[in-house]
Amino acid sequence: MKSFVIGLALLCAMAGCKKKDSESHAEKEGGHGDEHDEHEEREPGVVQLTPEQVTNANIGTAGVERRSQAGLIEATAQIEPAADGIARIGARLEGRVTTLKAGVGDNVIAGKLIAIVESSALGSAKADYLAALAMAKVTRETADREKTLFEKKISSERDWREAEAAAVKARAEKEAAENRLHAVGVSDAQLALLKVDGHYSSSMAIVSPISGVVVERQVTLGQVVTPSDTMFIVMNAQQVWILVDIYEQDLAQVSLEQLVEVRIPAYPGETFKGKVTNIGAMVEPKTRTIKLRVALDNPDGRLKPGMFANVTLAGTTGEARSTVVVPAAAVQRDGDAQLVFLPRGEREFVAVKVKVGRSFGDLTEILDGLKEGETIVTTGSFLIKSELKKSELGGGHEH
Q: Which residue has the higher pLDDT, 35 or 54?
């Protein structure tokens, strides 16, 4: 009996151990599953770094501060082509593209042939002109002859007046036909080469009205184009513009021809000189700002439309005001948006969209998105943004 009790106790102990092992294994499996679900269902805008990434990024943080700032009037803006430095080129009559002489990236000069369009409408317009030219010649000769006959008392005054009226009408029709050809680009020299009994071309030359670079070509050989179609866009970037918003209270410090210093992130350490060429006529009601146009000479083409720029107006002092600021290194551009990252734990960071204002040396004004006292990432924010973009594209790192 004693042996039976001892054996039963051993069986129970073994069963308990197996149950404990099973529960332990289940806990491990469940924990792994939770971890897996955590990575699969990560919040949008949240970045998790590995310990190695945190170490390599040398993550640094700073507090969001409120300061009273005053200094040179500064603004962030974007480089644009000068309004008169862009040409949209097309055909003035409907026709089919038969020759293309320029492509994207090609330099062209004003008046250079860049395409040829065959247009039956141009052929008809030339035929109408030649017919009107012949009629004007015949009616003028008839009117002159009738006048001579009238003076010699051979013909009546009525015949002469009627012939003169016909000549005047024919001349008007000839000039109208000539103006229609001028409107589609036919010169006086080309008109002089047209002959009633000769062959005349229906080819329409497409030329660039400005010197510059072809930035778009929107046609192919054989394509039918109409006057509403843009065939080429040519840009002359020898001078570029920057449109800057300044606050209403600072307007008294701004004047035409005022010197401006421009810094471009693409060229760190360099300063470009420009000047104010236009002061806006209206105040934007919502922001209470006025647009300034700053012109920069760009003979070597280094300043590209679309680049961002930081503009400082020489000889100005911005009005001191209390504002929320962060280190400039904390703000990362993401397309048209500006982001900062808030740490949440040692390896987790939350992206926050902000609206930025003026720059004050190595500080950037925050108009919306952050509050005084919050902690943000400074050093390492670029790496965090890169990881955020990877995760948005489905290429996040593994943990």
A: 54
